[in-house]
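Why predict the complex rather than its parts? Because the way molecules touch one another can change local conformation, and only a joint prediction can capture that. The input here totals 1033 residues.
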Amino acid sequence: MLDDLLRIEREFNQALDAAGLDPDAVEAIRVRFLGRKAELTGIMKKLGALSKEERPAAGKAINVLKQKVAARLQEAADQAGEAQRTASLAGERVDVTLPPRMPWTGSVHPTTHARRELETIFRGLGYSVESGPEVEDDFHNFQALNMPPEHPARDGADTFYLDGGLLLRTHTSPVQIRTMKDRKPPLKMICPGRVYRRDWDATHLPMFHQIEALVVDEGITMGDLKGTMDVVWKRYFGSEVETRLRPAYFPFVEPGCEYDISCQVCGGDGCRICKQSGWIELGGAGMVHPAVFQAAGVDPERYTGFAFGLGIDRIAMMKYGIDDLRLLMENDTRFLGQFPL
Amino acid sequence: MLVSCNWLRELCPVDATPERLAAALTARGLTVDAVDADTAPGDVVLDIDIPANRPDCLGHFGIAREVAAAFGVQLSPPRALPESIVPSDELAGLVSVTIEDPGLCARYTARLVRRVSIGPSPAHVADRLIACGLRPINNVVDISNIVLLETGHPIHTFDYRLVNQGRIVVRCAGEAMPFTTLDQVERKLTPEMLVIADDRRPVALAGVMGGADSEIGNDTTDVLIEAAWFDPVSIRRTARRLGLPTDASHRFERGMDKDGVLAAQGLAVQLLEEIAGGQAVPGMIDCYPAPGARETLELRYQRVQRLLGYDPGAEAIHEALDALQLAPREAGEGRVEVQVPSYRVDLVYEADLVEEVARHLGLDRLPSTLPLTVAPTENETVHPLAERTRNVLAGLGFQEAFNYSMLPEGADDRWVPKGTLPALALSNPIAEQLGFLRRSILPGLLQSADLNLRRGNRDLRLFEIGRVFLPAGAGDQRPDETLRAGLAWSGLAEPRHWSRDDRPVDMVDLSGAVAGALSHLQPGLAIREERSETPGFHPGQATSFRGADGRELATAGRLHPELLARFDLPQDLFLAEIDLDAVLAAAGPGLEYQPIPKVPAVSRDLSLVLGEGAGYRQVVDLLSSRPAPATARFEAVDRYVGSHIAAGETALTIRVTLEPYDRTLTDEETERYRLDLIEALESSDLPVKLRA
Ligand SMILES: [Zn+2]
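Output of the joint prediction:
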């Protein structure tokens, strides 16, 4: 009897070793050694052939073997299952470096990027964003801005005219006039938009984009203009940027000035970009001219105001290092694609 | 303007280097663009940008005044003034001046220098002219130029013999007539142009250019000198109309000094005697019908602080005004009164004096403060959909393009509805291709697509947001400017990928982009598609998207094959245009929460065959007109065209989903509804049948 048990155990071990991690083979071994027809199941019946003294030990040995077989089978089944799951996951592995299935990537124009960044800065300072017509009349584009007919300052803005006397606005300043006429001070606004000048060469396009800022209230000073520009240009170009005002003439401001920022390329030491001056001119500015206030129905004794303007396309070119103006209007997708949303 | 440093130092004794001069002038608003030490031997030339309001600085003397103020030095005394402004009997016998229109010529002075011998100028005169960018011609012409460059005041010299009887009449041309200017060009004068005439004919175009037949020649001996003041607007009109901007007209149209004629005459006569060997007839004819009074202007000290944001103090304000030769005088009550010199035509307002103070003290003295103003922002006029649309379209994979608002003639004719008024024409376009204001965004995008396809950029999705200009009728009425978004799509429908085959874009893709954009811009807005008649599109592949009230919100379509061929495009192009004003006006339900159903939805599929002339939208309109036991949604889940059905027919499976809120529908209710839908289809006029 004990010999039989030893043999069965040996056969079980051999079979289990041979089965490896194959769950089906392990299951077959379970049927063979623990199933209803298994020798180990039938061997209990042979106990009767043993002596009364031998019977308890033999019975115990059978049970020990049964438990041992069951435990090892469970262990083998677990291992086989685990191995199968691992193998199955391994089979589902993908090359994570393969190009993904991307959606189309859209973009907005670099000039839009620059405009939005400036709008965000101004909105953060409490400015509203205003707009007005691009086809203007002489009053709003010139006369209300202290440029009567035949004023020499009209030379600087070569104007497109429509039959009938209307014109394409040469700056966004008419929006200032319209907003002042429509609303009472205090006023704190910017007006971005398309403007048109009859000028077309390597450094001029007949259509470009401006932003002007206007603040009108009691007690607005040129110091406020300086401080506002300091904040705006530091936020836009970086905290190391300095702003400088130089006296200049624009009919709609008095005192008037042009303003420069310290050159970003050389840090103010002088280079080719800033023509060795260390400064880059950005635009015009000043205190709203009393004649402009009068034309717009604002009391120049009670209110003062500052205004400044700039070309957005130029700011965008500076910011993104674009060196050819024509790129802005060609719409080559290889250019546009460089400015994702 | 080119300014000689040597000349400047003669007028104002400063020893500052040219670089320091340049920096000081720039800081005062006379921007020095270049300091040139190479062109003129022994001299340094400054290129100064003179602002339009400072005609007094259009000569070396005016610049010298600014230098004197900047460096706190005294100007050299004037070189020469006429000894007398009264005509001698001798002069009165030789020359007479009549001003017919004192509004256009406020002052006219004349002097006569005889026995002049014409010849080349001495080197020191020629060098000055060359340094300032002028070419020496002969001593008399050169002297006119020297006077112009030093005093800033243009003078004109006539050959006295050629002015009939020495009679000068300042008058309008009176009639259209030809006139040959001294550049030997015959010009067409119009009646209102101001001329200098003798008693027979014009001899000069006042303030612009002299006439050829009274010009100084090699045999001239007697020189009649004109120094006058002409009306800026009149001179500007004449110069512009004739396309003849000159050094003289440039100055007169900015406003010359009525008293500047004296210095100009004085210098001219002195030089004609010194250099050209002439002898002046004593005295001067000064025709000055209404001499201007000295202008005064008041400045409140407190106004300086209110505009600049800092208080320089009364003393500093006085010093500044004094340095600028404005003769400040206390006027009591915190005011100072200044005498405006006749050459400072720019000083009119109190604010002009604040600017004088500000620039004299230096703009670097301004404090850096922020306005405390809080202003309402709720009435912004910027278009509420513009930026959203940019984000939505870029989010859908389109790239923003910019095109001109102007187009070639006729470029948008196929992109506007019938009956749209013709595009507005520019009266002075800069190029033929930019002659008319666009009425559609699409021609520009078509051009951009063309450029990209020619450059080999075969996959393109462009958008542009901008205004179009719809004429309102009358010529002087501003056009209706509406905001549009245009789309152009060509090449692949989806990015090329190793996991799938390339698929070219089609109408369904384009319409999806448009409908997708609209669903973001006006959430929940009901949109109906119809065929579009826009002639630029393929007649069978053009959609009009309309709001509930029938107003067109957008059009989309495939480019008409004729246009494709005309542009010689290598592949199909799909275009769409969204009217953002219409979308804004179509105010949909907006963002509003709808309760989520508590019970599951049920669906039924209807397999239909649509005959020719029946469209998905018509079928769904019919189905949704039937009463439903719960909210019903319809969608197309399958479409088939092919050999299993007749030609011209389309098999379409429409899924209807019923979404009850909190009561589960019974099978009977659902089935009754389905049967009702089938009944409705079968009894309708639409060529639709159930698929077997
Ligand atoms: Zn630099």
